[in-house]
Amino acid sequence: MNYHDIKLKLASEGVETADLEARILLEDIARIAKSEFFFARDKVLSEDISKRINDIIDRRVQGESLWRILGYRDFWKSRFYLSPDTLEPRPDTETLIEEVLHDHHSPKRILDLGTGTGCILLSLLQEFPDATGVAVDKAQGACVAATENAKRLGLENRATILNGSWFDPIPEGQKFDLIVSNPPYIPSQEIRNLQIEVKNHDPILALDGGEDGLLPYKYLCSNLKRYLEADGIVVLEFGVGQAFDITRIVEEAGATLIRVTNDLGGVPRVIKFRYGDN
To answer: Angle at Cα 248 formed by Cα 242 and Cα 252, nearest 5°?
Structure first.
């Protein structure tokens, strides 16, 4: 087995990103560096490596994502390890990080609601070395994953991971100058129509946004102000086709819209706002 065999087998099973995934398997399982790929793509892999790759392909064609099988996904500038209770960090969410950095705002205290792997908070803490942060998740397994990722990145002394629903674990009176979240935003009835990789392997708790997909935003926007400093900023990710409704929810909550930002595909993905006119 070599790279060409891996790519062909994935493609024949309907994997649309067969080329990319074959390269990733060479890097991860066969330990072939990106810089060596051109010279190694015709190399015949050992029997042991070939078996491990074949086992992964068998799982992959059953609908499990490659990243879920490998147990990690790279996001922003780091690698984040997954658990069954976390979503995979996805490139669209990097738009949220870029939006925080857009205005050269330098937060000192950050709150991340529904943290999952911790990828948003931990990436921001890497960008803002003087900041500390709190991450909250309802799933205990997600809190464990976020804690482990913080340790791997050397950020455990600057990141506090709390288990609970939204603001419940936050002590009364504690305020932040940046609050971020990528909440569940899939309408309940649409989950069954998602890709097999998502609906069968991603945690439903992190996907289900209620009947219209907007329930978390209605709750958050009604309560954020109590936890935000007077000059604080909020940055939220949302789903495809939700920009109009999210903007309306933000404005009805008495907040001031700063900007809606598109992801790399040109799709509105992130909203930034503040409370008051400051």
So the answer is: 145
Give the residue among 273, 274, 261 at the shortest CA–CA distance from 94. 261
Q: Give me the amino acid identity at 227.
A: Y
Q: Is 169 helix (H, G, I), strand (E, B) or coil?
A: coil
- What is the mean pLDDT of the segment spanning 154-178? 95
Phi, psi of 29 (to 5 degrees): -90, -45
Q: Mutual orientation of helices 215-223 and 243-252 as an angle, nearest 10°? A: 30
Instruction: Indicate whether 104 pLDDT > 90.
Output: no
Q: In sequence order, which residues have a C-beta less than 8 Å from that of residue 116 and are 6 or more positions away?
A: 85, 86, 87, 89, 137, 142, 145, 146, 182, 206
Decide if 239 contacts 87 (C-beta within 8 A).
Answer: no
Q: Whose CA is closest to 161, among 239, 91, 85, 71?
A: 85
Q: Indicate the average pLDDT of the chain.
A: 92
The full length of the chain comes to: 278
Domain boundaries, the chain: 3-62, 72-275
Question: Which tops the pLDDT comparison, 105 or 148?
Answer: 148
Q: Does domain 72-275 have CATH number 3.10.150.10?
A: no
> Which residues face 111 on adjacent strands?
134, 179
The yes-or-no verdict on residue 278 having pLDDT over 70 is: no
